[in-house]
């Protein structure tokens, strides 16, 4: 009888370097670093604190939308309505505050409730009927878009009270102007990163995305969890609506028309699988920065905006291809 032995390397487990390389965010982070190096070498204005602050300001609205989008994609769903819901929420906030119907704080609270209500309705339709998330949110996109234009009467809302634009104000930090809205976006990313990685709720979200049936058999209330995730995503879109109003200083009914696709782009570039159950919200933060860095860098190089869209599309296809290949290797 011979005793079997386990190789020493297997007993030690993966090294720290190997764990870092195999982390879902390693690829997107490497792409972000390479992009920053490339634009630093090709443009003189890119590598400055002011420019990086500008990039974060430019992506803070889409980045916040992408947080809610990440939660839904982790459950193997998708939300095409997020940009339109945000636009409707921003019009509700701006108009009710500008015409004095509500105080600024009450208008903000109403905007959050409206956006959360859209999320709740999405979740109920996806879970209780059930309907495919793509169809539900496509229909809700049109509903929110129409309500935005009906309620605003196609007019941009101006003369907003100061509390609505407070998050667009800046403060100096090391010679660079930072907006308070950027800090709100970063704080949300950190809060959801903790919730997804260190709480039972986060583990349930991943379990739901991996296999709803297995999650249900393990005692997870999948219906309630799904509806809750869509509602929470809607509330996050409400925060994005406030950030949009604070950054632009107006309530614009034309806003957010492509932000749904931009948020999906950020999620995919950040390494979250469109098939659910795999990804990280910090990866989404890196993904939205990749989009912002490419657009900013190409603009500094004088590249036409249509080529920026072309390159962004190519990056999305590459990211999904890598995801598909890694899934096949994992089987």
From TrEMBL:
Its main location: membrane. It comes from Streptomyces pristinaespiralis (strain ATCC 25486 / DSM 40338 / CBS 914.69 / JCM 4507 / KCC S-0507 / NBRC 13074 / NRRL 2958 / 5647). The chain crosses the membrane at residues 20-41, 61-93, 105-125, 131-151, 178-196, 227-245, 266-294, 300-322. GO terms for cellular component: plasma membrane. It is a multi-pass membrane protein. This is Sugar ABC transporter permease. It holds the Pfam family BPD_transp_2. It is found in: Cell membrane. InterPro entries: ABC_transp_permease (IPR001851). GO terms for molecular function: transmembrane transporter activity. The keyword Transferase does not apply. It comes from the Bacteria. Keywords: Cell inner membrane, Cell membrane, Membrane, Transmembrane, Transmembrane helix, Transport.
């Amino acid at each position: 009888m011979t005793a079997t032995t386990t190789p020493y390397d297997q007993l030690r487990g993966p090294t720290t370097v190997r764990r870092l390389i195999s982390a879902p965010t390693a690829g997107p982070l490497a792409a972000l670093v390479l992009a920053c190096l490339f634009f630093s070498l090709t443009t003189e204005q890119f590598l400055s604190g002011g420019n990086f602050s500008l990039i974060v300001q430019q992506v803070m609205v889409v980045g916040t939308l992408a947080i809610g989008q990440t939660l839904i994609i982790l459950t193997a769903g998708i939300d095409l309505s997020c940009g339109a819901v945000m636009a409707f929420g921003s019009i509700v906030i701006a108009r009710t505050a500008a015409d004095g119907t509500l105080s600024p704080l009450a208008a903000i609270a109403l905007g959050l409730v409206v956006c959360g209500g859209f999320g709740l309705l999405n979740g109920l339709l996806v879970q209780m009927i059930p309907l495919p998330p793509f169809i539900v949110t496509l229909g809700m996109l049109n509903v929110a878009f129409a309500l935005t234009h009906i309620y605003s009467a196609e007019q941009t809302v101006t003369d907003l009270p100061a509390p609505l634009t407070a998050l667009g104000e800046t403060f100096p930090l090391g010679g660079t102007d930072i907006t308070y809205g950027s800090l709100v976006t970063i704080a949300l990313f950190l809060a959801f990163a903790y919730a997804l990685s260190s709480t039972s709720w986060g583990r349930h979200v991943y379990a739901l995305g991996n296999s709803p049936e297995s999650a249900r058999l393990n005692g997870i209330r999948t219906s309630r969890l799904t509806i809750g995730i869509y509602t929470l995503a809607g509330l996050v879109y409400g925060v994005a609506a406030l950030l949009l109003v604070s950054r632009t200083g107006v309530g614009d009914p034309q806003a957010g028309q492509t932000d749904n696709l931009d948020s999906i782009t950020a999620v995919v570039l950040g390494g979250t699988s469109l098939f659910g159950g795999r990804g990280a919200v910090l990866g989404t933060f890196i993904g939205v920065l990749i989009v912002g860095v490419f657009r900013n860098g190409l603009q500094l190089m004088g590249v036409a905006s249509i080529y920026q869209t072309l390159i962004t599309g190519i990056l999305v296809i590459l990211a999904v291809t890598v995801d598909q290949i890694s899934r096949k290797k994992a089987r």
